Structures are given as C-alpha cells and as structure tokens.
Batch of 2 targets.
Target 1
Amino acid sequence: MLTAKSLFQEILDHDESFRLFCSIAASGESQGGWENGRIAALVPESQRAMAPKVARHGADEEKHGRIFNALLRRRGLQAVAVPAAADYTMLLERRGIGLAHEKLQRDEPLTEPDIVAYLAHSRVTEQRAAEQMAMLKKYFGDHPEVGKAVRMIAKDEDNHLAYCHEELLRLAGAGHAEEIRRILRESVRAEIAVYRDVSLAVMERMGHILRWPRAKRALLTAGIHAMYAYERAYGWRRMVSLRMPERLDALGGPASSAPEFA
C-alpha cells in the first residue's frame, strides 16, 4: 500500500535517494540560518529586544543543516547540488517571500515593516516545517539511524512556530494587525504553489533514482495536485491564523546542541 510512511522508508533505505533528501534539507536549513543571522544583526532599534530570538532561530536552522550533513557522513555520503526546481527557499524568494538577499547583504538597519514581513513569512513556512517534522517524528521518531535527529528538529520547529505566533500577536497589538493579515494571505498563496512545484520536482527526481513505475508516479502526481487543490480551497487557513502558543518565549535562551553524531 502506498503511504507516506512507505514512501519515506523507501527513500531512507536507498543511499542515492537519502543523499538527495538530506542534501535538499541541509541546504534549506543552512540558508535559513544565514538569513536569520543577518536579520538578527540588522534588527531596527525599535525591535532590538527580539534580536536574540531571531539569532536563536538562525542558530537552530544552522544546527539542522549540520545534522542533515552529519547523517550523510555517517553513511559515507557527500551532499549533492540541489536541483533548482527543488530549491524551496530560493523559489519562495523569487515570489517575494522572505526578505531579499540583496537587502540582507547590506549593512543597513531593517525597518519595522521589514520585521513584520519577516515574521509573517516565517509563520507560514514554519507551519509547513512543523507539520513535515511531526509526520517524520510519527513514523521515524524511534528509528535507530534518524530518530534522534528527527525528534530534535521537530521540537525546534514547534518552538519556531510558537515564536512566530507570539511575536506576530505582539506586533498586531502594536498596530500592525492589518498589515500582518495582508502579508499572511499573500504569503500563503505563494507558499502553497511553491510547495506543490517543489514536491513535483522532488517526486520526479526520486522516481528516477528509485525506478518507480509510471503508474506510481502518476498516482503521486495526482496526490500532490489534490493536496494543492485542498490547500488553495480551504487548507491555507491553518497557515494564517494566529493564537497565543502554550509555550511562551519559546526561543528565549541559547540554542540546544546538536546530537553527538553531528
């Protein structure tokens, strides 16, 4: 039976598919680490109190990148270049999601609207990350090879999502509610389209590596398009709602260390 668990098990069991999966994950996490690090350094004076949390967010993302690279090393594998069509982070940037790298490379303070946009974009993408890691934790949280890494990253992603909720609600209370609502809606429309396109690209590459039959590829393609249709019609709402998280100050304090193997 074709299930999410069986698909990921197949990817995990094959060196080349595992190599591609970890390479894509490591690249995206490392990029997110750099972006958050630059944002932390450029936070405007009016929002300096949140700079340590942004830095913690970046440190977590960099740690995740190291973890995925460490998983590769444990198998004696090296990362491969991420196909352009599967580069989630860069495709989002081209759609205007996330602060432009050109802006982050300048040593000029960001504005308060920049911080609002950064948090609104992050709220959408961290929802996706948290859901993906929750699924992996459900199926592979006890796996002898990847379980420890999956559990740690899943916990971090939950913290990142909680942080976005808390900070956006704070900014909404400070007069940015309408702007936050607008950016969230614009962001989610772009994200669900990019996620569909990246899913199709990764599925095509995995299918080639694992020699999936045409019927299996067609079924997976249909499933990806069905998920996109659901998210476009209704599912997007879960990615733009705001509620005060159970855990407050989720990114207060230093980042936790990576597992021993990393």
Note: The chain has a mean pLDDT of 95.
Target 2
Amino acid sequence: MHIDLHTHSTASDGTDTPAELMRNAAAAGLDVVALTDHDSVRGHAEAIAALPEGLTLVTGAELSCRMDGVGLHMLAYLFDPDEPELARERELVRDDRVPRAQTMVRKLQALGVPVEWEQVARIAGDGSVGRPHIATALVELGVVETVSDAFTPEWLANGGRAYAEKHELDPFEAIRLVKAAGGVTVFAHPLAVKRGEVVPEASIARFAAAGLDGIEVDHMDHDEPTRARLRGLAKELGLLATGSSDYHGSRKTVRLGEYTTDPEIYGEITRRATGAFPVPGAGGPRPV
C-alpha cells in the first residue's frame, strides 16, 4: 500500500481542487491519501464525491498552533468535523487569517515591495488565505524565485521582517480537542528548522504525555540525520512515525507520494480513531 497522510487543496493553500487532488493521488499510484487543509474541512465533501475506485480518503486538517512564541502544526485525522468545540476553534483561526495576511502585505509594502492585497486575494481565491499565497505574489513580482525562498527571515519566516502572528491554538489544547472529537493527532514536520524556530525535543515528550499519537518523520524538510533522530525519538516516546509529502500542487516541488506512511502505522491510526472513518472510493474508474 502507498499511503500519503498530508496534502493540501484549494480549500487552503494548495493549487489542486479537492476533486483534482483525488484524481492526481490515484494517478500517482496512491492507495490512501489524507486531505489536511489548514484549519479547514471545506474540501472534504468535494473530495469524497470525486474519489476514484481503489483510492481511500482519510479526512483531516492541519491545525495552526503556537507555544512559547514558536509556531507549529498538528495534523488531526478522522475527527468528528461537527464537534462544536473544535469547530469553533478552527473558525477562530480561519477568521484571523485575512487580517493577518493584510498586515503582512502592509509590512511588505513598508519594505518597498509593490504587493497589493487584491493580488494576494486573487491568488488565494476561495481558499483560506495564508503565507503561501503571499509568497506566490512575491514570486509573481520577481522578488523571490520560488515560494520556498519567501520563507526566510528576510521575508515571511516565523519572526521574519514581514511576519505577523494570528490566532493559534495551544498545542496541548489542540491535542485535547482532537481527542475529544474522536480524532488522532500527529505533530507535523516537528524539526523543520529551515522554516524557522522549532520546539525542543523535551516539548515533544510533553505532547506525548498529553496524548499526542505520532510525529511526522519522513518529510521534505527533514534531512536524513533528522529523520533518524525523529525515528529514535518516536520509539523512545511510544509515538507513531508517519511519512507524508505535504503536497501543495504546483506551489511546491514535492510530488504526491514522495514520502509515505507504513501500512501498519496507518492501521493503528484508523484503529485509534472514533470520530470518523476512512472513506473508500467508488466514484469512478481509477486513472491509468
């Protein structure tokens, strides 16, 4: 089985619609794909309707969190999307995205970058506006060469010159909320130092004690020594070790299924979840 547990659609900051993402996942040879848009479940219905036969969808979201000034993301899988407390927190985060992005646009303008809010809003479309949309605007303007180049201290990285904070969950509260909604939590790209400051390993141990289920080990922003270190940490703390592409369509160079999760780990995730269940595809023929 080929299992990719971290992807994004136009419901947040990917470039594939949820339906396109499902078709592309099947064409890439995946058996299981998780749709984990930022703080949103808006793409799930479209993805389910478009699921090709032979592809299974894991519903989820990537929750924006912050602890001691450090931003981090929690992947939440197979939770009840209608659970009111978690739904309310997701809405608070989404509602803060527009004023936060507008603040970053103003900071860029003060730095001499001729970016306009209308340009960023056009790029975001119906998605939840975020830094990748602003980064795409910088690429369009020729300020940086790639989206990744915008995520530096010079521009949009955590604490960067044009960075602005938004409403974010406390990670311990995120773990509690997801568990109360019957879901499973995995700490996304925990040691992706190229993105900015990361939390210390001691904090990961505290998350584990609070009920964290796993950590994302195999990821494009982790080099081989980091993956080995995280795999050892997962074993030490009794955490599940996952692998995922963090696919954003054309906004990143990573391919669907470039990093994957072991089927036994996937099985354990589904066993622990009670809020929702994987959706088997029956919407049409699998692409060849």
Note: The CA atoms of residues 15 and 249 lie 5 Å apart.
